[in-house]
Amino acid sequence: MDGWFPNEIRLCVSDQYQKNVGLVIVAAGRGQRAGAKDGPKQYRKLGTTSVIAQTLACFSQIVPASNIICVIHKDDEERFAEAVPNTPAHTAYVFGGATRQESVFEGLKALTARTPHITHVMIHDAARPYVKPELIWRILEEASAYPNAGILPTMPVTETLKTVSGGIVTGTASRKDMHRAQTPQTFPFQAILDVHQKAAAQNLTDFTDDAALFEWQGLSVLIVEGDADNIKITYASDFPRENVMNSLPDVRVGNGYDVHVFGEGDKVVLCGVDIPYTQKLAGHSDADVGLHALTDALLATCGLGDIGDHFPPTDEKWRGMESHVFLTHAANLVASHGGTIMNVDVTLVLEAPKIAPHRLKMREKLSELLGIALERCSVKATTNEKMGAIGRQEGILAIATASVVYGANT
Fold it and tell me: Does this model's pTM top 0.85?
């Protein structure tokens, strides 16, 4: 899968396991508590995109599109098509039932027919559009370690709980062992399908989440730490707050730094341009410090690690590789995350060779590689005033900055 996630989370989730994970997005509700006049909440706007499109995007780098089923209301086909026009999984949907439980059951049956190789399934509410990749990976890590258990993200209850009857407080309940359930909840696929089938056979349709079905059958449900930001949009008052947050310009700035020592050779490659010189820069690839630093700067704007995570120097297939491959990869990742590169700036720190005769060509190369105007590409150089290793002409250092606006074209 494209994208980068923390190794400590990713290590225990194999590629094969990941390919066998399915996802059911529950989006068949009417959202009456959020106000009916604006339509179901999952299709309303959060900033520039819909709630359901944002929810799907949270899983786009983790669950294969072919493994995703959305469960929608039979009256919402047009709304759904309009809300997720650029989502690969938007054609994979099924109509839900009268309750959430019945809707999930329809999604599971559809997933069986669509992707019979599924071994585990994540079930997530469409109205939780702020689930983070870190939480999803943490859940999958636990599910891969305990393949027969259900995995439930929760948050401890911090408020005081009261029992009430007829508008009168009748007592104070202990919150010691109380947790608030979140989604995505993850289960071994056949097991959760079986318990849904058993509940349907007994006309039991009032389970409010899928973990409750597992509990009903005496199956194990393990918890992982949830996320306070993983809220479920429920009331109309949730939207103004969220829309204010999401309508703010999402401008991000990333920085990158790289340095390479000189070795034997007759040219250096800087910002994609060959410059004749008495030495070359030593490195696993072509050692273009300018493009390496800029690659890191772009990756930083969407939290996708650094160049070494994507192109490890221990991998021989990258030996001698031209660095424009790395920069293009980073630019594509930025675009896939909804980013528009606004400008880039590279500062080269060196005593020699002279950069001024090549600056325009370097800027033109950056403009070509990134698909942005020449005026948005800056390259400049300075010396280290004869100080340190760079001042002794032992190598070249580069510092890069990139500014990217996210969500501008969504």
Answer: no
